[in-house]
Amino acid sequence: MEANPSLLDTVGVGDLVLLDPLSEESLLQNLKERFRHQEIYTYIGNVVISVNPYRPLPIYSPQTVEDYRNCNFFALKPHIYAIADDAYRSLRDRDKDQCILITGESGAGKTEASKQVMSYVAAVCGKGEEVNQVKEQLLQSNPVLEAFGNAKTIRNDNSSRFGKYMDVEFDFKGQPLGGVISNYLLEKSRVVRHVKGERNFHIFYQLLAGGSDQLLKELKLKRDCGHYGYLGQEDPSLPGMDDAANFRAVQDAMTVIGFSPAEVRALLEVAAVVLNLGNVRLGSQFQASGIESCSIQDSQAVREICELIGLPESVLEKALCSRTVEAKKEKVVTGLSVAQGCYGRDALAKNIYNRLFNWLVNRINASIKVDSSERRKVMGVLDIYGFEIFQNNSFEQFVINYCNEKLQQVFILMTLKEEQEEYVREGIQWTPVDFFDNSIICSLIEDSKAGILAMLDEECLRPGVVTEETFLAKLNQVCASHKHYESRDTQNAQRITDASLAGPCFRVHHYAGKVTYNVTGFVEKNNDLLFRDLSQAMWKARHELLRSLFPEGDPQKASLRRPPTAGSQFKASIATLMKNLYSKNPNYIRCIKPNNNKEPGVFTDGLVQMQVRYLGLLENVRVRRAGYAYRQGYEPCLERYKMLCKQTWPKWKGGARDGVQALLTDLCIPPVELAYGHTKIFIRTPRTLFDLEDRRRLRMADLASLIQATYRGWRCRTHYQQMRKSQIVISAWFRGQAQKKRFEQMKRSTLLIQAWVRGWKTRKQYKKYFRSGASATLANFIYRRLLQKFFLGLRNNLPPLVVTDRSWPAAPYKFLANTNEELKKIFYPWKCKKYRDRLTPQRKALLQDKLCASELFKDKKTLYTKSLQQSFQGEYLGLQKNPKYRALHTAAEGKLVLADTVRKVNRANGKAVPRLFLLTKNHIILADPKAAQPKTVVSLSDIRSVSVTRFSDGFFVLHLSETSTVGAKGDFLLVSDHLIELITKLHQTLLETTAKTLNLQVADEFSTQFGKSSVAIRIVETAEKNRVAPVCKKKGSHKMEILVH
Ligand SMILES: Nc1ncnc2c1ncn2[C@@H]1O[C@H](COP(=O)(O)OP(=O)(O)O)[C@@H](O)[C@H]1O
Ligand SMILES: [Mg+2]
């Protein structure tokens, strides 16, 4: 087997399986060596051996808890935490109910071990307010139960005087939910009696030391322990134990568990009653009949008890001193002897205390019990009294040792026998290891026919005189040949003389050693009789708690059936316990006591050797060595490790065995490590198992990551899809809504428009019928009437159609002013048009000439206004009619435009001579009136320009172009009486024939060309009206003045 370094590194070997050579000697040496180095824990596989150090060691710190938490069993130094952790993890992860069996002699450290296991589990099993409360309640049940159930013995200052099995219940996550405590056989005889050097139960001393004066007074107690008969006379104080402080701790613990102050008070009152009972002294007195009977010697104790429990003194007194016997349906009261009275008193005290203790356990259970019905995982912790061998061993030691014998049987069955049987069953090659099977001792005690307990019961129930002697005789008779039974009788039969075995004793060869039991008291203790008078008296008390402890005291329920004997009760409860233990996965802590004196650091070889022997440790190591550390059915094994191999993950199709084989082969586990049984796989070393577990943990972490990732992905995806869906729904809804809104709006608008239009139409249609429209109609009517009147008036009073008349009637109303103005503007051009339309062509031509004249002269020449009245006749000479002018007429060639007489101003002297002036379409012809022959003919094209004065004279200059032949003499200075007409005609003719306008100059000074020289002509206005104008005066050769008016 390959060694685990952590197990080798320590002092000696941490696991006895590794011990080499293996012998009792070496095993003992190893334990001793380790103990010397304060290594108190040693393994045999997964069994922990603990050697009591009797001194506090620094190995239970929170740091140590952390170190061992989730660490593999063999990875660290051996420790009780490792087994606690292993058990807890098995429970949590593999769903296997666990039990932790702590065995060992009294004082070996079982109770301490159980507390350490509990505190470790409490430290690692989840957190939270609720969980912490449960944990607290579970942990705090300890000090309470210890106060009432533990006592100082010679072996142990804090010896458990009851057996305790606690089931802690967990939920599927491994969080504690609560628990159930079972208690076994309290050593109640201690209430009334204890060996010198020991003490009564702690609670009495705690109460007296720690109770306040007030409390003690109320409980009718005195602080002095020596005052109480049951507490013994010796000094009760214990080194290292502060009773007063412990009392406070117990009270606090009860509060944590959930005891009400009233309950605590009642509990202490009952305890006080027990103490006081011990002080009830009975003395003898003689009755009238001369028979001796007992009576209360000192009534104070009885009075105090009765005051406490609310019972008339006389009732208790009577119950203590007499007894009612029913014979043939007749009740006979007989007085008790002093011995009987004392017996009754002590029996009452023991019973009250025992029942109080049971009540206490039930009360704690009520607080810590689990309400939910969900499936729970259970971890049981068994801390039961250890094997006891005293000087004088009585019934209590007998049952205690029987219990230990049964536990050893569990151990043997589950580790040695069962294991070996399993190898054979599974077809694993196996060399059997011999070990001692203690079932023979168990049956010696418990056999229902020939067992010691059965015989004791038989004796107790037998009619007739029953004494211990008859019981012993019966034992000697039935068990004479039993290998494990001895007595004076059997020794005598074998002719052995053994002084150590006294007369009233028998000896049993227990697995842990030979124990001699004194039969004195066996029958009485087994009967466990309490006179009915006493239980009835208790039932009559007003004290609720006390009363409830004695239900059989109720006369209504009185039964004549005997209660089951103590022995058979114990046997039954042990049987239940065994059944319970067998149903769970066991974890062993085997406690060893290194010396008998509670001394630290002392290792008594002989003592330890004895324990090692009877605990069967050597055999345990042998079996363990030869065997396999771990086994598991193929199915669960495959299920647990299938993820480590591709072939088996996620599902193996074939059989489980093949699957496991494929899996382990794939993992390259050496074949020597494995054995394939019929239904289970066996793994030799824990190391392989841990290796598998480690791989599994890693793989599980990977798988968990994968699941997480997949899950997260899935969650994100669904979340996204959900969001998307929602978004679509929202947007669809939104769009729909928007469209609806829009539609509604449009509809509203349409309706509005429709309504408006309809309204408008209707209004229009009906407007006339509306009174409100009347004014408009009226106004309109009036308006039209006015217009009509206005127009009609105009028609009738139109101004005369004379174009010169520009008059227009004024508008009758202001609002017609614009219209009137417009009409006026229209009317005048219309009148003119009418006028024009009526003109004859001649008149029209004349007017056109006039118009032309106005364009040329209006506002330029004063003469123009004078010419207005004159009509343009053109022909002033009568050329046609006058034959004198024939030549001229001919010269005009029918193109004559104008013929008149003008005066020609002499250029030289300014004197004017008449000339005939003819204007034709092409020429200007000047002729002498007398000759009437054309004298000068000027082509129209030769006329450069014409100059006239501003005044009302007829003077004008014809400026000729220098190129013309006529012009050689110079420009013509002419005077016409019809100047306006002449120039107008000239202009028109010029325009007509040459398409040139006449260059007309209206000025007061202008130059003319006289031959080659130019002459400046100045116009001078004169006032001489009578003189014929114009008068031309030559002023030098280059100047000429024209006088005009
Ligand atoms: N692991 C330990 N470390 C220190 N002292 C211990 C340890 N185990 C036991 N003891 C001492 O031994 C005494 C007896 O132990 P206890 O558990 O009451 O024995 P048991 O229950 O087996 O009768 C304790 O009061 C304590 O002083
Ligand atoms: Mg104990």
List its traits.
33 helices; binds adenosine-5'-diphosphate; 47% helix; alpha+beta; 7-stranded mixed beta sheet
Q: Can you put this structure into words, describing what you see?
A:
This protein has 1045 residues and is an alpha+beta fold. 47% of the residues lie in helices and 17% in strands. The protein has an 8-stranded mixed β-sheet with strand order 23-22-21-20-26-25-24-27. A hairpin with a 6-residue loop joins β20 and β21. α4 packs across α5, α14 (395-426) packs parallel to α22 (566-582) and α25 packs across α26. The longest helix is centred in the C-terminal third of the chain and has 82 residues, at 686-767. The model is unreliable at 1-8 (pLDDT under 50). Residues 110-111, 159-160, 383 line the site of magnesium ion.
